[in-house]
Predict the 3D structure of the following.
Amino acid sequence: MIRWLKRTSMENLAWLVGAVAMIVFVPGALGGTVIDLKTVYFEQGGKEEGATIYFDTNCVRFDATEGGERLQLVFHADENGEPVCWVIDQERKSYVELNKKSVGEIEAQAERARKMFDEQLKKSPPDQREQLKRNIDAQLSAAGWNRISVEFKKIASGVKLKTWQCTQYESYVNGVKHEDVWAAAVKDIGLTEADIRTLRGMGELFSGISSETNAFFQVGRKVDQGGFEGFPVLLVRYNDGKKYEKSEVRAVRKEKLDKSVFELPQGLQERKLTQ
């Protein structure tokens, strides 16, 4: 996800959305919630990475490190109440701003790409069509533009993890098992329903341009719409039926957060997605 900041082509937007999946910001000194996360990569010999999420009224900041590279994301509402996401690259002293307009342009580009591929399939020789479809699906998947269905199924209630009573879910992507998820009640994790609405607003901002399936990206989606209740404190992801990644909440604390936590640092140059 962090390496997206070093890449500029449009097909890598999914890297960004995968990172945003885990996040989301007010004048003066504020009281907020800080969540520390740990991710273990099974296929990399148990390598561990850390991340921190800062929550406050109508905003969130996500800090993480991957492969020695630092990622910062800030999601908040602008002066008009419109959602804005800053993707900050401190090493390059630059940032990308995403809002409804820019996301809408990306979504339109994705739809044009889908239509173009559909036309290619129709015109291709029948004996080459299946292979071409696989190639096209791979390209759309790499760009995060393939259409998918994510559904959560409740497995058990009252599962004790650390100090939390959790509900266990399984997530399925296009009918294939994708994650095991243990979610604690929002109030028990130290968050508010307003925090969850902010996360959901972020998810809706990106829903048209990425096929991100991580449970953090699905927070706030209603149960009757195939979602789940609560906030994930532990999730295990699968790839081809094998466990390959585990993410868990290590600690939750209340902390007085200064407004600068959610502001754009000075001295950064704005760049576009294609720069």
About this structure: The chain has three domains: 2-98+258-267, 104-143, 150-249.
